[in-house]
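Sat 14:20. Reprocessing the chain from the morning session after the first attempt stalled halfway. Input below, unchanged.
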Amino acid sequence: MEVVLFTLLGLAIGSFLNVVILRVPENQNIAFPSSHCPKCKTKLKFYHNIPVVSWVALRGKCAFCHEKISFQYPLIELITALIFVIAYLKSGTIQEGLILGILFALLLALSMIDLRYKAVPDILSFPVLFIALFSRSISESVYGALLFMGGFSLLRMVISWLIKKEAMGEADIIIAGVIGGVLGVQLGLGAIYIAAVIALPAFLIVGKKGFQLPFIPFLTLGLYITWVFDTQIATLMGKIYG
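Finished this time. Tokens:
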């Protein structure tokens, strides 16, 4: 029953995240106007907003103007539902499952916004950092967050000085704090390493085409992979550090 509830909750929050992803970067109200077709602006009926189901039933098209509806909508809803289910199953408690589910769902939204706009709104990044402080004991989370934010700030200063321009944004530092808060020092370093390994080929491929890729989606992916496979990665990190 809990798994079903977390699935439904994830779908509902995923539907809300779609609104956040599209409206927050544009400084639009997330509540008004109510849900409407982005093409014809017609207000949607409540049954047009059922996560995933409505998109499938409408065959990915608006019920009024029949313009295509982006696949992003059901994709974000399904990913968010999966995030909440895994958060509950791995944590084992409803409270921890909710905290981690909301945390990773917001990180998903931040990653999508960063990919689309190459910028992250503080109105979302700071709440994520705040929630991360409650993912473990407060003292451990605060220590890890401060350590990683300080480390990334120093790294930013050094690299910016070397290349004579800003090397990373403040949002990257905040997400580094989230990583330290959720995972601690040892696993946090593993998450950043995984993020870098995943990002390197992507940056090399996209860089040749003249595009810029933000780092936050990769930091988020590194964090999530490390959190899901924490036992295996902790064992590997233990062997590395002897």
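Residues 179 and 188 are 6 Å apart (CA to CA).
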